[in-house]
Amino acid sequence: MGSQLLSTALILAVSITICKTTEVLRPHGVPLSKKIFYDPSKDFSCLDGSGTIPFRLVNDDYCDCKDGSDEPGTSACPEGIFHCINIGFQPQDIPSSRVNDGICDCCDTSDEYNSTAECKNDCDKLGKAAHEAYLYQQRVFYGGKNIRDTYIRNAKKEIEESQARLEQLRQKVADLEAMKNEKEALKKAAEVKEKVALANYKAKVDRNKRKHNEQEIHEAEREDREQAASAFLDLDANEDEILHYSELQSHIKFDQNGDGVVSDDEAKFFLHMKDEMDLNEFQTIGWQIMKPYYFIDKETTTVKPSRYRRGPRGDPRFPTYDYPDLPDEMGEDQVETPKPTEPAATPDPSVPYDDETKQIIDVAKLAKEEFAKIDAEYQNAQSEMKQIETLLQTDFGPDNEFMALRKRCFEFRDRQYLYTFCPFQNCSQKSSEEGATNEVSLGNWVRWSGPDDDKYSAMKFEGGQSCWNGPARSVQVYFSCGETNHITGASEPSRCEYRYDFETPAVCTKPFESPDEKRKDKHEEL
Ligand SMILES: *[C@@H]1O[C@H](CO)[C@@H](O)[C@H](O)[C@H]1NC(C)=O
Ligand SMILES: *[C@@H]1O[C@H](CO)[C@@H](O)[C@H](O)[C@H]1NC(C)=O
Ligand SMILES: [Ca+2]
Ligand SMILES: [Ca+2]
């Protein structure tokens, strides 16, 4: 506590001394750079050349020069400029109307030398804070620069690897192209063969289908005749191989009007109104009339329908039929399971391919697969080649330091919006509300857009979604040095033209100015 007071007192003493010294050296409010114009041994010439006055009229609190240059240390002239030296911090120019206005403007209190305001010299405090800020900036700069160096090394490596890979790919694409052409020729030949084989196969299937249908009709007829023969045998009571109408009259199922008697006409009806029929005529005509009635089960003696009632064996008029398993229509070409492998061929799944067709289809399938495999490899290699070519053609900065930002996206959220920035790709914006999906494109990467002497300090994105009744949106991204990559601000300074501020190690090339350097810029010597 005590030592702090002491040091404060010491600082005050020192600054007072300096103030006194400087006041002796030049009139109050005059910057060092203009000291030579204020020589107490000569008359004073107004700096704008508007007149010459005795030196005692300088800072006499009366305005003599039009430009106010005779009153740098008072508020007498409306246009005057007062210069604070601010030892320990940065010098400052203020309008001279603020001199002795009761408000402390200069940190060294020099603007209030004759006022009731109680100003405290806090230049040292400000100077210290500025210095600390500077040290912090320096740490950021060197940290960022290290990262930038890494970016550059990585980029160099990636470019070399990409170039080597590109060479490799060029060779590979050439090889694959040759192979692809070869496989394509094989595939085409196999496909032609397959097409022919499938056409043949289809023709055969159609042929077989027709044959099959004919056989089915034939089979039905044969069965019908057999049923007729069986019924004939059953009804021919006296076994004279002639069916007489009287023989039908004992079967009540032929009673059509339901009076319990089978009349002559009712019986004859089944014989086409004839008295009798032999087997052959019955099979052709009579059975067709009788069939619906014959199987009616009206009496105990009713004959159940049976395909297998046979005539006496060996009698040619009552042929016996063997019923072996139906011959397989496709017998000769049979293969256990049909395996149509090509849906495009629309094969009949009930009919298996013959071995030769099957083999041709398999060969074609293999040829197609092999071609597809090589083709896919070829396409992949080509697209990889394109990607690498694009990469190598992109301007990633003087030392390719921006390559590190490729493939990365950054977000920035303010109260209203969530902004995204994908360097070398695009920018977008969407509502910052939870779950919002409506993304608006703010533009796609176009070019570097910094000033001519600092081209890589900004990036331009154009061709975003058009504003309502307005131009397409665009973004200018301004880069500044930082230890990490992040958006520090996003705004829309003019309609549809957005601005992002982005910190990145990629631009940490020049150290920040030190407070001393800043002073030098203002041509001050302290
Ligand atoms: C300070 O101001 C008073 C009144 O405004 C004036 O009379 C006096 O001369 C001034 N002193 C200096 C040193 O300018
Ligand atoms: C922007 O680029 C990124 C990265 O390439 C991509 O994933 C995204 O879909 C793009 N967005 C728009 C709106 O084009
Ligand atoms: Ca004057
Ligand atoms: Ca003031």
Automatic annotation (TrEMBL):
Residues 152-223, 364-391 form a coiled coil. GO terms for cellular component: glucosidase II complex. Keywords: Coiled coil, Disulfide bond, Endoplasmic reticulum, Signal. Residues 304-355 are annotated as: Disordered. Residues 1-21 form the signal peptide. InterPro entries: Gtb1-like (IPR039794), Man6P_isomerase_rcpt-bd_dom_sf (IPR009011), MRH_dom (IPR044865), PRKCSH (IPR036607), PRKCSH_N (IPR028146). Residues 407-510 form the MRH domain. The keyword Manganese does not apply. GO terms for biological process: N-glycan processing. The keyword Transmembrane does not apply. This is Glucosidase 2 subunit beta.
